[in-house]
Amino acid sequence: MKITTTFRNALWDSFSLSYGFSTAYDSTGDSHTNDVSKFMKQFGAEGEVILLDQVHGDKIIQVNERFNTTVLQQADGLITNVPGKILTIKTADCVPVLLYDPVNKAIAAVHSGWRGTKDLIAVKALSFMNKAYDTNPSDTHVILGPAIKTCCYEVKDDTASYFNKYPDSLETRNGSMYLNVKLPIIKDLKDAGVNSIQNIDSCTGCSGESLCSWRMHKTRKRQYACISL
Ligand SMILES: [Zn+2]
Exposed end of the chain (fewer CB within 10 Å): N or C? Predict the structure, then answer.
Protein backbone atom coordinates (compact mmCIF):
# COMPACT_ATOMS: atom_id res chain seq x y z
CA MET A 1 0.00 0.00 0.00
CA LYS A 2 1.28 3.44 -0.91
CA ILE A 3 1.24 6.41 1.38
CA THR A 4 -0.37 9.45 -0.15
CA THR A 5 -0.41 13.07 0.84
CA THR A 6 -3.10 14.84 2.74
CA PHE A 7 -2.57 18.52 3.26
CA ARG A 8 -0.07 21.18 2.35
CA ASN A 9 0.46 24.57 3.90
CA ALA A 10 1.57 27.59 1.85
CA LEU A 11 3.94 29.01 4.49
CA TRP A 12 5.55 25.62 5.14
CA ASP A 13 5.88 24.99 1.39
CA SER A 14 8.08 28.10 1.24
CA PHE A 15 10.65 26.70 3.72
CA SER A 16 13.82 24.92 2.65
CA LEU A 17 12.93 21.60 4.23
CA SER A 18 10.78 18.56 3.41
CA TYR A 19 7.61 17.77 5.32
CA GLY A 20 4.51 15.69 4.74
CA PHE A 21 1.29 14.60 6.40
CA SER A 22 0.00 11.32 4.99
CA THR A 23 -3.45 9.88 4.54
CA ALA A 24 -4.46 6.77 6.51
CA TYR A 25 -1.90 4.05 5.91
CA ASP A 26 -1.71 0.43 7.08
CA SER A 27 1.55 0.53 9.01
CA THR A 28 1.72 -3.16 9.89
CA GLY A 29 3.56 -4.27 6.71
CA ASP A 30 7.33 -4.85 6.47
CA SER A 31 7.70 -2.22 3.79
CA HIS A 32 6.55 0.76 5.79
CA THR A 33 10.02 2.27 6.12
CA ASN A 34 10.38 2.07 2.32
CA ASP A 35 6.91 3.51 1.87
CA VAL A 36 7.74 6.45 4.14
CA SER A 37 10.94 7.00 2.11
CA LYS A 38 8.95 7.08 -1.12
CA PHE A 39 6.31 9.31 0.41
CA MET A 40 8.95 11.85 1.47
CA LYS A 41 10.94 11.64 -1.78
CA GLN A 42 8.12 13.50 -3.54
CA PHE A 43 8.90 16.44 -1.24
CA GLY A 44 12.62 16.26 -1.93
CA ALA A 45 13.72 14.28 1.15
CA GLU A 46 16.50 11.74 0.72
CA GLY A 47 17.59 9.88 3.80
CA GLU A 48 16.99 7.63 6.69
CA VAL A 49 13.52 7.16 8.19
CA ILE A 50 13.57 7.54 11.98
CA LEU A 51 10.64 5.90 13.78
CA LEU A 52 9.84 5.47 17.47
CA ASP A 53 7.98 3.03 19.66
CA GLN A 54 5.46 5.68 20.76
CA VAL A 55 4.23 5.26 24.32
CA HIS A 56 2.20 8.44 25.13
CA GLY A 57 5.03 9.76 27.30
CA ASP A 58 7.03 12.98 27.14
CA LYS A 59 10.48 11.65 26.31
CA ILE A 60 12.23 13.28 23.35
CA ILE A 61 15.27 11.84 21.59
CA GLN A 62 18.05 13.76 19.84
CA VAL A 63 19.02 12.23 16.49
CA ASN A 64 22.71 12.63 15.68
CA GLU A 65 24.77 11.59 12.64
CA ARG A 66 25.15 7.98 13.74
CA PHE A 67 21.72 7.40 15.22
CA ASN A 68 20.99 3.69 15.60
CA THR A 69 17.74 2.79 13.84
CA THR A 70 17.94 -0.98 14.42
CA VAL A 71 16.13 -0.79 17.77
CA LEU A 72 12.96 1.28 18.08
CA GLN A 73 13.32 3.51 21.11
CA GLN A 74 10.39 4.24 23.41
CA ALA A 75 9.73 7.96 23.14
CA ASP A 76 7.25 10.43 21.63
CA GLY A 77 9.43 13.13 20.15
CA LEU A 78 12.51 13.53 17.97
CA ILE A 79 14.80 16.50 17.36
CA THR A 80 17.73 16.89 14.95
CA ASN A 81 19.91 19.33 13.06
CA VAL A 82 21.33 16.62 10.79
CA PRO A 83 20.18 16.76 7.14
CA GLY A 84 18.74 13.53 5.75
CA LYS A 85 17.13 12.25 8.94
CA ILE A 86 13.40 11.82 8.26
CA LEU A 87 11.76 12.31 11.66
CA THR A 88 8.49 10.36 11.61
CA ILE A 89 5.49 10.32 13.96
CA LYS A 90 2.47 8.01 13.60
CA THR A 91 -0.98 9.10 14.76
CA ALA A 92 -4.61 8.00 14.55
CA ASP A 93 -6.26 10.81 16.62
CA CYS A 94 -3.39 12.34 18.56
CA VAL A 95 -1.81 15.55 17.31
CA PRO A 96 1.34 15.36 15.18
CA VAL A 97 3.39 18.51 15.82
CA LEU A 98 6.30 19.58 13.59
CA LEU A 99 8.74 22.34 14.58
CA TYR A 100 11.28 24.20 12.45
CA ASP A 101 13.99 26.64 13.48
CA PRO A 102 15.26 28.21 10.22
CA VAL A 103 18.01 30.21 11.99
CA ASN A 104 19.87 27.24 13.46
CA LYS A 105 18.52 24.71 10.92
CA ALA A 106 16.90 22.40 13.44
CA ILE A 107 13.64 20.43 13.44
CA ALA A 108 11.42 18.35 15.69
CA ALA A 109 8.50 15.93 15.34
CA VAL A 110 6.24 15.25 18.32
CA HIS A 111 3.32 12.92 19.14
CA SER A 112 0.91 14.79 21.42
CA GLY A 113 -2.25 13.01 22.50
CA TRP A 114 -4.05 14.14 25.64
CA ARG A 115 -1.30 12.64 27.81
CA GLY A 116 1.54 14.27 25.87
CA THR A 117 -0.42 17.51 25.80
CA LYS A 118 -0.94 17.59 29.58
CA ASP A 119 2.78 16.80 29.93
CA LEU A 120 3.68 19.72 27.56
CA ILE A 121 5.65 17.54 25.16
CA ALA A 122 5.65 20.12 22.35
CA VAL A 123 7.06 22.80 24.68
CA LYS A 124 9.61 20.27 25.95
CA ALA A 125 10.75 19.64 22.36
CA LEU A 126 11.20 23.39 21.94
CA SER A 127 13.25 23.59 25.17
CA PHE A 128 15.38 20.64 24.04
CA MET A 129 16.00 22.40 20.68
CA ASN A 130 16.99 25.52 22.62
CA LYS A 131 19.47 23.55 24.74
CA ALA A 132 20.87 21.49 21.85
CA TYR A 133 20.83 23.97 18.97
CA ASP A 134 20.29 27.41 20.53
CA THR A 135 16.77 27.59 19.08
CA ASN A 136 14.88 30.75 19.91
CA PRO A 137 11.08 30.19 20.25
CA SER A 138 10.29 33.45 18.43
CA ASP A 139 12.19 32.18 15.34
CA THR A 140 10.45 28.79 15.42
CA HIS A 141 7.63 27.74 13.11
CA VAL A 142 5.15 25.09 14.22
CA ILE A 143 2.53 23.14 12.30
CA LEU A 144 -0.12 20.84 13.78
CA GLY A 145 -1.39 18.00 11.57
CA PRO A 146 -4.82 16.35 11.36
CA ALA A 147 -6.17 15.07 14.70
CA ILE A 148 -9.47 14.28 16.34
CA LYS A 149 -11.53 17.40 17.04
CA THR A 150 -14.18 18.50 19.50
CA CYS A 151 -16.92 17.18 17.17
CA CYS A 152 -15.75 13.59 17.82
CA TYR A 153 -13.51 13.60 20.88
CA GLU A 154 -15.62 12.61 23.89
CA VAL A 155 -13.57 12.34 27.10
CA LYS A 156 -14.27 11.08 30.60
CA ASP A 157 -14.17 13.41 33.60
CA ASP A 158 -10.71 12.25 34.71
CA THR A 159 -9.19 13.15 31.33
CA ALA A 160 -11.15 16.41 31.17
CA SER A 161 -9.91 17.38 34.65
CA TYR A 162 -6.36 17.84 33.31
CA PHE A 163 -7.64 20.56 30.98
CA ASN A 164 -9.73 22.67 33.36
CA LYS A 165 -7.04 25.34 33.20
CA TYR A 166 -7.80 25.72 29.49
CA PRO A 167 -11.58 26.33 29.80
CA ASP A 168 -12.10 26.90 26.05
CA SER A 169 -10.72 23.43 25.30
CA LEU A 170 -13.73 21.66 26.89
CA GLU A 171 -17.28 21.58 25.58
CA THR A 172 -20.33 19.90 27.11
CA ARG A 173 -22.97 18.41 24.81
CA ASN A 174 -25.88 16.27 25.99
CA GLY A 175 -24.18 15.69 29.32
CA SER A 176 -20.89 14.51 27.77
CA MET A 177 -17.53 16.28 27.71
CA TYR A 178 -15.64 16.89 24.46
CA LEU A 179 -12.02 17.99 24.23
CA ASN A 180 -10.22 20.29 21.79
CA VAL A 181 -6.75 18.82 22.37
CA LYS A 182 -5.02 21.27 20.02
CA LEU A 183 -6.02 24.35 21.98
CA PRO A 184 -3.75 23.67 25.00
CA ILE A 185 -0.84 22.82 22.68
CA ILE A 186 -1.24 26.12 20.84
CA LYS A 187 -1.64 28.12 24.06
CA ASP A 188 1.39 26.53 25.71
CA LEU A 189 3.58 27.09 22.63
CA LYS A 190 2.44 30.74 22.41
CA ASP A 191 3.18 31.20 26.12
CA ALA A 192 6.65 29.76 25.43
CA GLY A 193 7.22 32.48 22.81
CA VAL A 194 6.26 30.83 19.49
CA ASN A 195 4.46 33.24 17.12
CA SER A 196 4.14 31.14 13.97
CA ILE A 197 1.66 28.28 14.47
CA GLN A 198 -0.12 26.72 11.50
CA ASN A 199 -2.96 24.23 11.94
CA ILE A 200 -4.32 21.63 9.53
CA ASP A 201 -7.85 21.64 10.81
CA SER A 202 -9.31 18.35 9.51
CA CYS A 203 -10.84 15.90 11.99
CA THR A 204 -9.55 12.31 11.86
CA GLY A 205 -12.90 11.14 13.23
CA CYS A 206 -15.28 12.54 10.61
CA SER A 207 -13.35 13.76 7.55
CA GLY A 208 -14.00 10.65 5.45
CA GLU A 209 -11.94 7.63 4.55
CA SER A 210 -8.69 9.40 3.72
CA LEU A 211 -8.06 9.93 7.44
CA CYS A 212 -8.40 7.28 10.12
CA SER A 213 -9.34 7.47 13.77
CA TRP A 214 -8.53 4.96 16.49
CA ARG A 215 -11.51 6.10 18.54
CA MET A 216 -14.08 6.20 15.76
CA HIS A 217 -12.93 3.32 13.51
CA LYS A 218 -10.78 1.13 15.83
CA THR A 219 -8.35 1.02 12.94
CA ARG A 220 -4.81 -0.32 12.78
CA LYS A 221 -4.05 2.30 10.15
CA ARG A 222 -2.10 5.40 11.02
CA GLN A 223 -1.38 8.82 9.55
CA TYR A 224 2.31 9.62 9.18
CA ALA A 225 3.81 13.04 9.84
CA CYS A 226 7.36 13.48 8.60
CA ILE A 227 9.95 16.25 8.52
CA SER A 228 13.51 16.33 7.19
CA LEU A 229 16.23 18.93 6.58
ZN1 LIG B 1 -15.03 15.02 13.92
Answer: N
